[in-house]
Amino acid sequence: MENKAILIEPGVYGYRICPQWLKNNFRLAVKYTCPRCHKQESECGTLQIHRKNRGCNGGLYTVLPLNHPKSNCDIDCRNCHGLLHANEYPNVKSK
Ligand SMILES: [Zn+2]
Ligand SMILES: [Zn+2]
Fold first, then answer.
1. Is the pLDDT at 90 greater than 70, yes or no?
2. All structural domains of the chain with their residue ranges
3. Which one of 33, 35, 75, 86 is most buried, counting C-beta atoms within 10 A?
4. pTM of the model
C-alpha cells in the first residue's frame, strides 16, 4: 500500500501508516523510555505510536514533535498503549 505524506494543513504532514523513520524519531525523542510507566524498551519492548484521533476517524501519524499542540501522535509501551485503549473503548480493539 502506498504511504505518501498527506498535507493536513499548511506545514503539517501526516501518514496513514507510521513510517519507520518517524517511529524512530519519536522513540529517540523520549530516549526509548515510555513516558507513562517510565520503563525502557529493554524492559517493556519497542515503544508504539498512538494516534489521538483514531485511524478509523481519519487520524494520521503527524510529522510534528510529540509535544506540538497539533501533533496527533503519542508514544507509549505495548502495555500502556493497551491500557489506554482499554479505558477508552472497553469492547473495541484498535490501534
Ligand atoms: Zn508504559
Ligand atoms: Zn493507540
1. no
2. 6-88
3. 75
4. 0.88
